[in-house]
Design a protein that fits this description.
The protein is an alpha+beta fold. It has four helices and 13 strands. Helix content is 24%, strand content 21%. Strands 2, 3, 5, 6, 7, 8, 10, 11 and 13 form a nine-stranded antiparallel β-sheet that branches. It has a two-stranded parallel ribbon with strand order 1-12.
Length: 278
């Protein structure tokens, strides 16, 4: 087992201990500071893991980041970029789960076709979002190394009360469950040359591929969903240097003909021509 994965498991254990102390304090007399010890250790472990991952990603001359890997876009139609590595790295504020260069995208086929964020309604059904059910496409000829679509798609978290619930309760609980509970339903492709593509938050039961399948660029893999640590149906895409998100480092990407869209940018993409079967 890699040091990265051991550190990840140790961090989860510290977080679990923190919550266990909080719950136990309602029933027995526990010194106040006991809960802060595991929380402090969790924070130190997270900081150390981010520092180590940052050093591992600086592989080029003079500590420069590696060159981005060019692949096709994983969707078709009009989308908007969120949490883009074009604006900051790590794009999601952490290098955990190999997501230093990850990007989130939401479908916006027409202006205002995507529900906004506000106080009401507290939650929305996934069908209200145009991204839900959108096809996910293979970004290159590849081999499927992991495919999991058994988790449910939950309601949106696109109101202030729901967002607080996601950040304060649901998010930490998912971290305790490990990478699978955070990324939700997902598929991971081996693109060759030590590069792997991960699609997260996939729709339950939508995957049309299984582990070991060989896929062609442009082939449909499944559908966009709202599983895992997600506020609304969207595509979370990233490249990594390993098949296990808990042990991998992020790899920068660029989408052919698009580049890396910055936060808030609308972009259009057509489905890539499927590679003919050999």
């Amino acid at each position: 087992m890699s040091m990265r994965k051991l550190s990840e498991q140790a961090a989860r254990l510290c977080l679990f201990a923190f919550f266990a102390v909080i719950v136990a304090s309602f029933f027995v007399d526990i010194p106040y500071w006991w809960g802060w010890v595991p929380l402090g250790l969790w924070l130190l472990l997270r900081l150390d893991m981010n520092r180590r991952a940052a050093r591992a990603e600086a592989k080029g001359p003079a500590g420069a980041a590696p060159e981005p890997v060019e692949v096709a876009a994983p969707v078709t139609g009009r989308w908007k970029a969120l949490n883009s590595p074009a604006d900051k790295v790590p794009s999601h504020g952490t290098r955990a789960y190999g997501q230093a260069y990850a990007i989130d995208i939401v479908a916006e086929p027409e202006p205002h076709s995507r529900p906004g964020f506000g106080w009401w309604p507290l939650v929305r059904r996934n069908e209200a979002f145009p991204a839900f059910g959108a096809p996910l496409l293979a970004v290159a000829d590849a081999t499927v190394v992991r495919a999991d679509d058994r988790q449910r798609d939950h309601l949106s978290r696109t109101s202030w009360p729901a967002a607080v619930y996601l950040l304060a309760i649901e998010g930490p609980a998912r971290v305790l469950g490990g990478a699978r509970r955070v990324i939700g339903n997902h598929v991971i492709l081996d693109l060759g040359d030590g590069t792997y593509a991960l699609y997260a938050h996939v729709r339950r039961g939508s995957l049309t591929v299984r582990t070991g399948d060989r896929v062609r660029a442009g082939q449909q893999l499944g559908q966009c969903g709202d599983s895992g640590n997600s506020s609304e149906p969207h595509v979370h895409f990233q490249l990594m240097d390993g098949a296990d998100p808990e042990a991998a480092d992020g790899v920068p990407f660029t989408w052919r003909g698009i580049g890396v869209p910055p936060n808030g940018e609308l972009f259009d993409t057509e489905a890539p021509a499927e590679t003919p079967a050999s």
